[in-house]
Design brief:
By secondary structure, the protein is of the alpha+beta class. It contains 6 helices and 4 strands; from the N terminus they run E-H-E-H-E-E-H-H-H-H. The longest helix is centred in the N-terminal third of the chain and has 13 residues, at 30-42.
């Protein structure tokens, strides 16, 4: 996954403006909905867009990076054409946002394999633990402007 902007050459990816970071998230997951709201609060630049995995673009990006859009147990964050997944996506996004977002850096004390194990356990059980919530139904008009579909 080291090559930049590989999705640009994928005919299955709908055209989109990739000039700013994109977070591809499960729009039906309450934990992901909370994460999307945190992106909206922490990203003071207002540049990061949120793309539901249930959209054509979100599903195509997931497939491009070998992730299953029908069972999205991973979070995908594209920044500068580079993909970040799972906890690495969370850590990268936190660094990018700065301020309170830097607090996620504390998680680096755990080895990567422990972080990935923990992430996968939470992701696989996210509906049972946190429930469902439609992030696209959030009424904030500024949040709605961030959504890609």
């Amino acid at each position: 996954m080291d090559q930049l902007y590989t999705y640009r050459n994928d005919p299955g990816i709908p055209d989109f403006d990739d000039g700013a970071p994109v977070a591809v998230m499960d729009a039906e997951c309450a934990l992901c909905s909370w994460g999307a709201r945190m992106i909206h609060r922490l990203d003071r630049t207002g540049l990061v867009r949120i793309c539901p995995v249930q959209s054509d673009l979100g599903a195509a990006l997931m497939v491009h990076y070998g992730l299953d859009p029908a069972d999205p147990v991973s979070w995908l964050f594209l920044d500068g054409g580079r993909p970040y997944v799972d906890f690495e996506a969370v850590l990268h996004a936190g660094q990018r946002f700065g301020g309170w977002g830097h607090l996620v850096a504390v998680l680096r004390i755990f080895p990567r394999h422990v972080r990935n194990w923990l992430y996968q356990r939470i992701a696989r059980n996210r509906y049972a633990i946190f429930g469902r919530r439609d992030m696209c139904a959030l009424p904030d008009p500024d949040f709605q402007k961030r959504l890609l579909s």
